Amino acid sequence: MNPVEIAEPMHSRWSPSVFDDRHELTDEEVTRLLEAAQWAPSSGNRQPWRYVVAPRGSAAHRVLVPHLRRGNAGWVPRASVVFLSVVVLGTDGDELKDLVIPVHDVGQASAHLTLQAHAMGLRAHQFGGFDHDGVAAGLGLPDGTRIVAGIAVGVRGNPDDVPERDAERDHRVRERRPLAETAYDDQWGRPWPGLRPSGPTTAPAERA
Ligand SMILES: Cc1cc2nc3c(=O)[nH]c(=O)nc-3n(C[C@H](O)[C@H](O)[C@H](O)COP(=O)(O)O)c2cc1C
Fold first, then answer.
1. Could you list the residue range(s) of the whole structural domain that residue 97 is in?
2. Short-list 53, 50, 59, 55, CA closest to 19
3. Does ligand 1 have an atom closer than 6 angstroms to the CB of 85?
């Protein structure tokens, strides 16, 4: 294996902003995505994730859309389904337990869902830019839960159908900082010395 290449579908995953607003997911496809999330590891196998499934035009979708931040209001509603990830917090007596591990676990389940979507030839774009409290209230979510993020899933649409601003986002160069700024040894900030030359830190949006 070429040392600079990571495995699929991580290699070719990216977050498109132009979805086909006529495409629909089948219930079977939605179920497979949820099943991928379900098989994520979690601390103590507590599985603190829940998902509100909001196909375009559904009641849950109608709750979400007015709460989207401006930058997301154009592209998110076009996706076939939005999954809203929700963390369920355990309690220690009356105190809610620390958020760190449960939120980590929900993020990991959502990564599974996102990668499963890509492996199925779908595209997924996670987003956090919406009024979380407004959506939680609109959906009547119970105490002890918090919405974490949205995952918009669908297939790519025609860039000519969307505002230029959204179409342009799909042509941006994707960037990452070098691994030497991410992986340290025992001295914080000092690159782990085993690092080898790795892949480029920029990539075009869609990779084959
Ligand atoms: C928790 C989370 C929140 C995000 N929020 C937004 C958002 O509100 N709007 C948006 O367009 N993209 C959002 N993104 C997508 C990121 O901007 C995107 O993943 C990042 O730029 C890297 O691009 P790539 O996914 O194509 O590699 C979010 C991603 C995550 C994981």
1. 7-158
2. 55
3. no
